[in-house]
Design goal:
Layout lengths: L5 E4 L5 H12 L3 E6 L3 H13 L3 E6 L5 H15 L4 E4 L14 H29 L2 E6 L2 H5 L5 H21 L4 E8 L5 H4 L3 H9 L9 H12 L10 E4 L6
Parallel strand pairs: 1-2, 1-4, 2-3, 4-5, 5-6, 6-7
Helix pairs in contact: 1-2, 1-9, 3-4, 4-6
Bound molecules: NADPH dihydro-nicotinamide-adenine-dinucleotide phosphate.
NADPH dihydro-nicotinamide-adenine-dinucleotide phosphate binds next to helix 1, strand 2, helix 4 and helix 7.
Length: 246
């Protein structure tokens, strides 16, 4: 059980992040539900948690902003005195073929998906090191492992997250801090709802298990990595993708 633990989940108003927040809270953690633009959705995540008897608070922060994420971490540490679990889930896509990809679309995706995780880990690292414990979970993607046409920015950010995970795992292992990455395949959220039915059918056909995953498939793995079951696991990239990356 995660009773007494404090968790930050970035981008937890919607999609996979919301499901992760619900799972951690149901297991007893106090959850900081971070959002950037979706205040109503984040409030709804908090309402669902409190209705089920859990504890949560919605806090706005654009994680791609170095100074804003520093202030966010400071505010949480002042109020809750510690953070035990950090889930870097916030992510965006701006898909296009490389020839047509703008510099803005490249930068926006790298800034949120990769630098956002760097910002949060960096600002929390001192507190994790001092308490000699912590669980950091970065949400990567099958695209970061295999690459994906039309997603060079996104794939680069998600592959970058894998490098970040492994390096920080090596740096922090001796302090009792576990750093792992989760690589979802195709999961049913707003991000993938934008795909056409045809594209989804084709993608599902390439998944050995023959179906798209749900946010709770990802949340179950994150819950395991956040708990003591993962105490001897660090620097790993674990796929939750119905076999897509095989
Ligand atoms: P959604 O588009 O449903 O949600 C994205 C979330 O990220 C939102 O909560 C959004 O918050 C948040 N976010 C975006 N930018 C920022 C920012 N600058 N600061 C803080 N939060 C931000 O996506 P999913 O739930 O599908 O994706 C969650 C994670 O899982 C992402 O990292 C994604 O890359 C990854 N993933 C998803 C897969 C899928 O098939 N769905 C597959 C593989 C990986 P707000 O609305 O408040 O801006």
């Amino acid at each position: 059980m995660l009773t007494g633990k404090v968790a930050i989940v970035t981008g937890a108003g919607r999609g996979i992040g919301r499901e992760i927040a619900l799972a951690l809270a149901a297991d007893g953690a106090t959850v900081i539900v971070n959002y950037n633009g979706s205040k109503e959705a984040a409030d709804e995540t908090v309402s669902q948690i409190t209705a089920d008897g859990g504890t949560a608070e919605a806090v706005q922060c654009n994680v791609s902003d170095f100074a804003a994420s520093e202030a966010f971490v400071k505010k949480v540490l002042e109020k809750y005195k510690k953070v035990d679990i950090l889930v870097n889930n916030a992510g965006v896509t701006r898909d296009n073929l490389i020839m047509r990809m703008s510099e803005e679309d490249y930068d926006a995706v790298l800034d949120t998906n990769l630098k956002g995780a760097f910002n949060m880990i960096k600002h929390l690292s001192r507190s994790f090191i001092k308490q000699r414990s912590g669980k950091i979970i970065n949400i990567s993607s099958v695209s970061g492992i295999r690459g994906n046409a039309g997603q060079s920015n996104y794939s680069a950010s998600k592959a970058g997250l894998i490098g970040l995970t492994k390096s920080v795992a090596k740096e922090l292992a001796s302090r009792g801090i576990n750093v792992n990455a989760v690589a979802p395949g195709l999961i049913d959220t707003d991000m993938t709802r934008a795909l056409s039915d045809d594209a989804k059918k084709q993608l599902a056909a390439s998944i050995p298990m023959g179906k798209i995953g749900s946010p709770s498939d990802v949340a179950k793995l994150v819950l395991f990595l956040a708990g003591e079951g993962s105490d001897y696991i660090t620097g790993q990239v674990i796929s939750v993708d119905g076999g897509l990356a095989i």
